[in-house]
């Protein structure tokens, strides 16, 4: 069985005015199923670009991205959307909850796109909200939740469809250190219990400390890759 994610000689260029920015400069990397990996580095090092490519939000200039040994590098927009919907969970620093939906409805939303039946949605959403410590808060709206509780809803939404990969882009950036630590501990617990594969983009030392693998980027290339 191959790696869950492979990037091969991955390059990504952006044009800013007349200038070409080489965001990734020929990267090779593999992520195995069940990893809890942080991708770190200064601004402009390529962290977000790498996550966007793994998350099928963008396509490479050169090289390949393989997910479950399937080369998604040249998939159509529709094919990429299908991969995102079915196989990838996203956690953002700004939570990205829908304000007019309750916690339950926010978590259930991606399942409705997959056309799950109502009983299965009910059972899965209630269970994952319990797993993230929000039992009894199903009917609360984002405005009625603290920042940490909103991020717990976002974690539940990312995990409820049991995706192949969870991508977390600076998930602690808008949380105080105690709350951020609690959220990271929760994600690590879910990683251990459910075997969920987490890949973080981060500046946060707390994330780096808790990661089992730390990949440091510099100028669009891997500067170091340490397993703990």
| Outline | globular
Number of strands: 10
- Level of helix content? 25-40%
Radius of gyration: 17 Å
So how many helices? 7
Strand numbers in spatial order across the main sheet: 6-7-8-3-9-10
The largest pleated sheet is described as: 6 strands, mixed
Structure in words:
The protein has 228 residues and is an alpha/beta fold. The chain has seven helices and ten strands. The protein has a six-stranded mixed beta sheet, with helices on both faces. It has a four-stranded antiparallel beta sheet with strand order 2-1-4-5. A hairpin with a 2-residue loop joins strand 4 (62-67) and strand 5. Helix 3 (103-113) runs parallel beside helix 5 and helix 5 (147-159) runs parallel beside helix 6. The chain is globular and about 50 Å long.
List the keywords.
single chain, 228 residues, alpha/beta, six-stranded mixed β-sheet, four-stranded antiparallel β-sheet, 29% strand
Show the helix and strand layout:
Layout: E1 5-16, E2 19-31, E3 36-40, H1 47-54, E4 62-67, E5 70-71, H2 77-87, E6 88-92, H3 103-113, H4 118-131, H5 147-159, E7 165-169, H6 177-194, E8 198-202, H7 205-210, E9 213-218, E10 221-227
Parallel strand pairs: 3-8, 3-9, 6-7, 7-8
Antiparallel strand pairs: 1-2, 1-4, 4-5, 9-10
How would you briefly describe this protein structure?
The chain is of the alpha/beta class and 228 residues long.
